[in-house]
């Protein structure tokens, strides 16, 4: 990933609690023809900041009465993958609007959304996680005055 895109992404993320983790064995292709096959396998976990809450349109499957995951095609995980298709393959987009820390590791948020880590794909190179805003009540105090 180019450093410019990474800097823009980190600036966009600002003060949110977020972690990026590059896992051992990250593949790098020398041959451009092999680049797509060598793209880093990326999983995004987290809350509304990662899912793209309020950034419509949402994936229709994530905007129903039974779930309000609100996963946007304009979220930062999707943008990272779409802008760098030869470097990053988004293989798991588990972020869910309204998620709290227990929704990452222990508690289902909706009947159809198990804890995010439970549906974690295997063979992953990069993981991002944004969590904590809902734990401290961010939606309650971040309303317009």
Which features would summarize this protein structure in a list?
single chain; 145 residues; alpha/beta; Rossmann fold; four-stranded mixed β-sheet
Strand and helix map with partners:
Layout: H1 3-13, E1 18-22, E2 40-46, H2 48-51, H3 76-83, E3 88-93, H4 101-105, E4 126-130, H5 138-141
Parallel strand pairs: 2-3, 2-4
Antiparallel strand pairs: 1-4
Distance between the termini: 39 Å
Order of helices and strands: HEEHHEHEH
Major sheet characteristics? 4 strands, mixed
Rg, rounded, reads 16 Å
Strand content: 15-25%
**Largest beta sheet: what is the strand line-up?**
1-4-2-3
Highest CATH level, the class: Alpha Beta
Shape: globular
Structural class label: alpha/beta
CATH homology superfamily name = SGNH hydrolase
Number of separate structural domains? 1
Return the CATH topology.
Rossmann fold
CATH architecture: 3-Layer(aba) Sandwich
Structural overview:
This protein has a single domain, classed as Rossmann fold (3-Layer(aba) Sandwich), CATH 3.40.50. With 145 residues, it is of the alpha/beta class. It is built from five helices and four strands; from the N terminus they run αββααβαβα. The relative contact order is 0.24. The longest helix is centred in the first third of the chain and has 11 residues, at 3-13. It is globular. A four-stranded mixed beta sheet has the order 1-4-2-3. It is 22% helix and 16% strand.
What would a concise description of this structure say?
The protein is of the alpha/beta class and 145 residues long.
């Amino acid at each position: 990933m180019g450093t410019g895109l990474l800097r823009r992404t980190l600036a966009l993320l600002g003060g949110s609690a977020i972690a990026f983790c590059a896992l051992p064995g990250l593949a790098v292709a020398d041959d451009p023809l092999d680049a797509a096959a060598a793209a880093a396998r990326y999983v995004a976990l987290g809350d509304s900041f990662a899912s793209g809450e309020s950034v419509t349109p949402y994936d229709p499957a994530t905007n129903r009465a039974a779930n309000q995951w609100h996963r946007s095609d304009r979220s930062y995980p999707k943008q990272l993958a779409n802008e760098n298709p030869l470097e990053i393959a988004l293989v798991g987009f588990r972020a869910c609007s309204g998620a709290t820390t227990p929704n990452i590791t222990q508690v289902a948020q909706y009947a159809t959304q198990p804890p995010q880590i439970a549906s974690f794909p295997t063979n992953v190179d990069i993981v991002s996680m944004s969590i904590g805003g809902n734990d401290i009540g961010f939606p309650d105090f971040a309303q317009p005055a």
